[in-house]
Prior knowledge:
Layout: H1 14-32, E1 41-46, H2 48-55, E2 62-68, H3 81-94, E3 101-105, E4 130-134, H4 154-168, H5 173-183, E5 201-202, E6 209-211, E7 218-220, E8 226-234, E9 243-250, E10 253-254, E11 266-273, E12 280-283, E13 288-292, E14 314-321, E15 333-342, E16 346-353, H6 363-367
Parallel strand pairs: 1-2, 2-3, 3-4, 6-8, 10-11
Antiparallel strand pairs: 5-12, 7-16, 8-15, 9-14, 9-16, 11-12, 11-15, 13-14
Amino acid sequence: MPVEFNEDLSAFHGPTLESQISYTSHAISYILSLYPPGTSIIVMGHSMGGIVATSLLPSPNISAIITMSTPHTLPPARFDSRIDNIYARNQLLLTSDPTPIISLCGGATDMMIPSESCILPTDSNNEIPRRTIFTSALEGAWTGVGHREMVWCHQVRWRVARAALEAAGATIAHARVFILDKWLRDGHTLPPAATLEEPGFTLTDPEKYRIMPEAEHLIIMSKYLRGSGTFLLPLPPARKTLLKATVLVGLGSISSVSPQNAVPLKVSVYTCTPSEEGPRCSPMKPDLLKLIPNPKPGITFPVPKEGADESEGAVVFEADIPLIAGDDPDKRWLGVCIEDGDTRGWVVAGIGLRENVIEGPNTLCELL
Length: 368
């Protein structure tokens, strides 16, 4: 049910905003009266439409709210006290109402509202589902999105549509939040499925694994990806710093992350140690697991006037390898298990030193 107010200047006029809230509330009640009792809806709002959506709470008719480029914490202008009253009430709702709320923000590319005004208050106990995702970090979106562009950018609206369609079919709140987190995920956080424990295994057949030479990266291009196998990359000798494991998979999947048109190729990452039966491997938990662009050599990226979508992409896996007291690096490996290779896709893996390449902000340095 789209609600269009003919571009009323609700950001500057409290009575206009109040009339929009009242109209939307009555419209939802009327539409749901045509459906079986107990039916609820997901409300999506752009810009001040997100303020209208939040103001509808508390409501048993609303199962979730998705806002886009909405200034939740600070009104764009304060020309009357009614806007202040609406915002004050919404702040209480944001910290108390259990309805899941997702805020998609454009960040630096949004020239109409400050980035910080789009951020939802967080719940320290994580009991109230509130998520703030900037489009520059949204998995599947390759760049930040402007204020108006938020409603038509394909990479954003595709994920919003998938999240809404699947969440609408969920019957319990926990399942609904899980689906929203699946599709509208900050790429700096792990997907829900990545936190599940996977069973380890022991490599007892030497024909099914290969130990790579020390300090050599694993690079397997498409024509060599056939069948299944495990590759063991030795950890570097004596070290005093943490190591970082990096694995990239083109067109295939790692855990639950994959492009939409993925090939059967599956890759799992393990930490392996020696045993009498053979190398014993345990699942390695990622610190980063997300989909990134997969440009094709010789082809302009992104395609002019078309952009890029999730049909093809590469999955990046990163994890810190901690130091262990008394550990002998020569007896530990990074295990890369490849399954169902069919000469499509590619796999690259390597081990490097964990180094911080981003320094904290320093106002004095910026001024100088």
